[in-house]
Amino acid sequence: MATADKVAAVEEIAGKLRDSNAAVVTSYTGLSVAQLKTLRRSLGENAQYRVVKNTLTKIAAKQAGVELDEYLKGSTAVAFVTGDPVEAAKGLRDFAKENPALVIKGGVLDGKGLSADEINRLADLESREVLLAKLAGAMKGKQSQAAALFQALPSKFVRTAEALRVKKAEQEGGAE
Q1: Whole-prediction pTM
Q2: Comparing 3-7, 18-22, 40-44, 134-138, which segment has the lowest mean pLDDT?
Q3: d(Cα 76, Cα 79) in Å, to the nearest integer?
Q4: Would you call 4 exposed, middle or buried from its count of C-beta atoms within 10 A (0-12, 13-18, 19+)?
Q5: What is the signed CA dihedral for 71, 77, 83, 84, rounded to 10 degrees?
Q6: How far apart are CA 52 and CA 63, in angstroms?
Q7: What residues have CB less than 8 Å from 82, skipping those under 6 apart?
Q8: Which one of 26, 42, 59, 138 has the fewest CB atoms closer than 10 angstroms to its CB?
Q9: pLDDT of 1
Q10: Contact status, residue 83 vs residue 121, Cβ threshold 8 Å
Q11: Looking at residues 41-59, what average pLDDT do you find?
Q12: CA 118, CA 98: separation in Å to the nearest integer?
């Protein structure tokens, strides 16, 4: 029989899975409380790292329409990401490099399952802000090229017309 505490925990986890645009499942065996605290701080405000019970998380994942069963074995913690998933993936990957006890098992991004390798590839991407800045720079460059092209057409026309006028004047002057 389900206790009120377990029902509330399942509802809370299901709500976090629904509200998050990504969730990364990790194993944290061997990490100290201080290391977990450092990890939570390194993820920033856009991700919440929480130790979860596997059976309750399986039930919550089913309620939220997310498939996480294959990752819910052993000691499990989930990073619920509400902001930029690339930033959170980088934070987890970098922390795991410094602390090998943290193992990324897998996760979900916008309802699609991700393996640990896919999460590491996601971490290799540049952040949303950098990608937007590059896009803006590329667009600005194309605009300046278009402006130069539009300015070149009238000036080329004027130079061509002037050259024709001079040539015609020379022909008329040579004919006299």
Answers
A1: 0.67
A2: 134-138
A3: 10
A4: exposed
A5: -60
A6: 16
A7: 19, 20, 21, 46, 47, 48
A8: 138
A9: 46
A10: no
A11: 88
A12: 20
